Amino acid sequence: MKYLGLAYFTPEQFAAMPPEDVKELVSQCPALDEKMRATGKVLVSASLGDLDRWRTLRPSRGKTHVSDGPYTESKEVVGGLFIIEADSHDEAVRIASMHPAATLGEEGGWAVELIPMDFYLAR
Question: In the chain, how many H helices and how many E strands?
């Protein structure tokens, strides 16, 4: 079974952190990412770009309308994603718990949401 992991952060909390704390926090991420990838179960792992370059596309009156930024009513924003293939739900949780957003960053509002995927299509 494949699972989508969404790594969240809270922009206001993250922005309130002192720059040296952000640097220390971010410096710990590569080792945790590598630990997760070393399981051999990670199919995709990605960090997402700056929020000011995001666009939201929404249908309205038969046309696609584009607006700036992420969905505005959300406090938490997706900052990264990963897809894992696990033999069980417990294994998926174990692997996802290795992600930096599940291990660190409480002060930045970090969290991981793990979602089973019913459909997966790759090139």
Answer: 5, 6
